[in-house]
Amino acid sequence: MGIVKKLLVTAAVATAMMVNVAHAENKKIALVVKALGIGFFDAANKGAQEAAKELGDVEIIYTGPTTTTAEGQIEVINSLIAQKVDAIAVSANDADALVPALKKAMDRGIKVISWDSGVAKDGRMLHLNPSSNPLIGNMIIKLAADNLPEGGEVAVLSATATSTNQNTWIAEMNKVLGNYKGITVVDTVYGDDLADKSYRETQGLIQKYPNLKAIIAPTSVGIVAAAQAVTDAGKVGQINVTGLGLPSEMAGHVKSGASKSFAIWNPIDLGYSATMLSYSLINGAEAAPGAEIKMGRMGSLKLDDNNEGAMSDPFVYDASNVEEFAKIF
Question: CB burial class (10 A; 0-12, 13-18, 19+) of residue 56?
């Protein structure tokens, strides 16, 4: 009887050890967002969790600061380094400020990628653009121009003045501005991805430019705030709000007429792809110009000379489809 008990105890200990080893082998991938509490990033986390479930040996750490600051993200990154995560996938509030902390992470063997909003090349192994920057830049001005056949004054409501992706898209937009006759960009203001500030900045644009015909907000926080400000000012039908937003947050504004159309890639796909790319790097994929790195059901990411690649084209939402997609994200 004593031998049987001993064997049972030994078996139990062995099983516990095997469970602990299996748990220890889980890859920890940190999805670092610009700030917590933003719908776009919550949707990206859903995609990351989907990828983790598909892979089976991945734990997602979804984290970020409470406000959209580089300082807040640096604190988060340093904490993740201390936790010895396997990979950090970050949407940056500042392209350059995060580099020292992320270099430290890479020096410790942590795989680092940026997604959505990029980090300077020295601070990451690769960057996942949600789409092609030129395509996005063209799309946001096209969305405004398509509803202004006679031309008119257009203003831009961006996120932070240092936001990598916002600045890149606006620069690409300005490159093709000449293709849209009669369209004049009169101002660019910054709402810092805060709803109240974005609302106030929109109010300022409405007061400053009485002939304003459209507001382009390439930020999911800004576009909602701008649409609400236009509605509250009684300018629906006079000022069209467009840019990049989430169907779930914009469906009501499309229905009211405050926004005729807007665009976005699927943030669920973006979080999924960032996780899959991180996993590929953990398992030995090399981030080098010309490389094609697997990202699950989204195919492969082909890297350019700056180790950047595009996930997919932006997609336009309007009255014909926004309600359907609002049920998803």
Answer: exposed
